[in-house]
Amino acid sequence: MDRFEHDVLIIGGGGAGLRAAIQVARDHPDTSVAVVSKVYPMRSHTVSAEGGAAAVVAESDSLDDHAYDTISGSDWLADQDAVEVLVEDAPKEMLQLEHWGCPWSREPDGRVAVRPFGGMKLERTWFAADKTGFHLLHTLFQTSLRYDTITRYDEWFVTSLIVADGRCQGVTAIEIRTGEMRAIGARSVILCTGGGGRVYPFTTNGNIKTGDGMSLAYRAGVPLKDMEFVQYHPTGLPGTGILITEAARGEGGILVNNENRRYLSDYGLGEPLDVKDPNHPQKRTMELGPRDRLSQAFIHERAAGRTFQGPDGDYVNLDIRHLGAAKIKRKIPMVRELAVRYVGIDPVDEPIPVRTVVHYMMGGIDTDTHGRTTLPGLFAAGECACVSVNGANRLGSNSLTEILVFGARAADVAVEHALQVSTPDQKLLDDSLAAEQSLLAETLLRANGGGETVGEIRGEMREALEEGAGIFRDETTLKRACNVVADLKRRYEKLALADTSRTFNTELIAALELGAMLDVAEAISHSALARTESRGAHQRTDHPERDDQGFLRHSLAYQTPGDPRIEYKDVTVTRWPPGERIYGSA
Amino acid sequence: MPDQVLEVFRFLPDGDEEPHFDRYDVNYRDNWVVLDALNHIKEQQDPTLSFRWSCRMGVCGSCGMMVNGEAKLTCETFVRDYDTDTIKIEPLTHFPVIRDLVINMDDFMEKLPRVSPWLVREEESDLDQGEYRQTPGQVAQYKRFSMCINCMLCYSACPVYGLDSTFIGPAALALAERYNLDSRDEGHGQRTDVVTAHEGIWECTYVGACTEVCPKDVDPAGAIQMLKLSYALDWAKSFVMPKGSDS
Amino acid sequence: MTREYHQRLPRTWWLRRATYFQFMVRELTSLAVLAYAALIVWALLATGNGKSPAGFFDFLRSPLSVWLHGSVLMLALFHTGTWIALTPKVLVLWRGDEQIEPDVIAGANGILFLALSGVVWWMVMG
Predict the structure, then answer these.
(1) Average pLDDT for chain A
(2) What is the mean pLDDT of residues B59-80?
(3) Would the CB atoms of B136 and A105 count as touching at under 8 Å?
(4) In the structure, what pLDDT confidence band is assigned to residue C122 with cuts at 50, 70 and 90?
(5) Per the residue annotation, which of A28, A135, A249, A531 is the catalytic one?
(6) For the domain with range A245-359, which CATH number is right: 3.90.1310.10, 3.90.700.10, 2.30.30.40, 3.20.20.510?
(7) Where does residue A580 rank: exposed (0-12), middle (13-18), buried (19+ CB within 10 A)?
């Protein structure tokens, strides 16, 4: 079959992508839909998510409470209309997953169980032990297998969006197995490609999280929004960066420094209750505070010399011994497995060494509350998008919810758009393909390079971002990061590959991913430089206060031939005027 | 930092007639897994070495390979645990090799959907009516079989699959049982034909190697034996109650 | 379509892993059982219809026969052992939310086997 063409083309086969695909296939069976992914869908990074997905379920809970927690958690940068959509659609998405077979953990009476999570006033995090992402992804993938109308392109790497007549009309992609490049025409394209944690050196993210879709949109003229907001998760394993879920704290785990103190009480996160107290852990207090504040606390503790020193750097202790073996086995078994395997600690007997680690990007492709981008025919959902529901800091367990809610919504508007436009012209597809093939031949696939390697450029980029755009930044460090990235982009032009094979060339894929990562790094550092305030996960030591007058706005980074152009647009405030983030009160 | 030699299977279809082994000397850190060593080789010594990986925490199922002849997830296999002169790394057996350590998994992907691995229900109830009730005890019935990460180590270990690749295989059958045992599922009958076909459960001779190599303790061998009992009883029942008996 | 490399399964695959070897032995025990069944048929033919059983009983007492019976007994016990070990795979029992330990199931079946064997022994010898 030489002509590849679909009504709706979804890039990325993770939670958002598969949810979107099922939405199209189920509700619009006459629409041709395809999923293109650079890995088999079961490998998508959704699989690593552990803790859970938030949705209001208890009688004593309310959508407004979930919204308020999310908005205050976001340091008021979230668009409140988007948050209202998130919290309202959340419960039915969770129930839909349950109806599709997701093995949610249950109460004795058979109802779905919920657990406490950081920054949430009440228990509302649905969970499947501590492998929620794994179960969610496999449920979605297996459910997607019911629908014959979903075509899959497994291990195809999208290299560019095809844009003509002011709209997106498809993609060019390399079939990794053969190295053949093809054009796939589409009336609507939905980017569900995930975040870009791999631009940093120490991250919970898997190898594939390289911001590919963000770069595709960026290069097509779509702005990347709020890129300066990078979430550091407070509890990753030293050395590997493997995630230890927030659920460990949701179930009552505590964080202590080298003085054996629960140091979070020094950071405006309330007073610690004794672990035996029936009210422990207290919501929105101490270890159940928001991630940005906990990660910042770690940095302060380290500066004050109160962290432990280990072979893989500094760490603090996450103590879950008091939970007991039975509870650990039932509620957070994977935490124990990971600790035993990767740091040789059995958390039933010893505390787990943890440290702060890059985890999530609040920023991404600018979309509206339906997933539409500024380019007609192009949509985005999931971590690669920025609606924004997470603003300056995301609450744990809101992301798994977000990918489902907005994956489904993006699918609906993508179908709507597809029905209104014509199929892409074959000549357009052929020309785009030829152009992209020439480009590749002249750059990465040419015979003589300038002595650069993927590994070197990538390593230097990561170092620059960690140095310059880490948890605490200032003008000097950010400017340096911007300059290093710009220089690396120039050096990237000189890159040529050692691997000249066409068959499953992973060096080529790594090089293409590096190109995407450099775009993401550029957007992060320039957006961060431009935002001269501190808010949520973006902390400027030279501008330590939050400035609602100047910056209750989203940054928008547009690619230019030189430095990105940064513009701003206002945050949508509906019912929750900006206030102070208060944690720690009873 | 200690030293370890890795002997890695190489095959490039563009040029090679036959595969060969390349030797790499690696200075490794104590906490390195085999995957770390391979990445080190790729970054520092030989960028042409190809292999799949992603999560590096044993949950995505990408990095399965033969390590000294045993099927392993290389992200969960520590270099320090080997004291052989060289560690031999090969692609998962019983699968065709696309290149180096990358195998063709089309067969597996084709088999998975055959067992109808989704929740089958006569009627789906409205979401307004809330969740299907399922007690922790009911979840426990199928939980173990739901833990499969699709890493295919079991297919590599299974001699039946090695001798006859039409065998539907351990992971696919374990997934069938996962749904059969899920109290919300009504698809037991629907899965009969595929599960009891010649290349289904009856081709399994209970060697049990699949369960041994499974990194997630799924116990596919157990799932298959349970399926045998369950569908054998169905077959027997069909003589006693021939008409209208489903599931 | 690029050429793929097809890994050949060596004829000695069953030597590569203890589990494979044990599997082959288990399967071969069926031949031992078959051989013994043949012996029993021969015994029936040799001793039925008024034929003198003396020659047959001489054979039974011979070293070859003892060796044969001993080997078959060993193999049959091995086969039985693998079957008992398999019972937890099909007999999955629950106590509330917890699965009953597989060893308990296997152990119970093992004891049952010994008890029944004891009964048969008593019936034959007593």
Answers:
(1) 96
(2) 98
(3) yes
(4) very high
(5) A249
(6) 3.90.700.10
(7) exposed
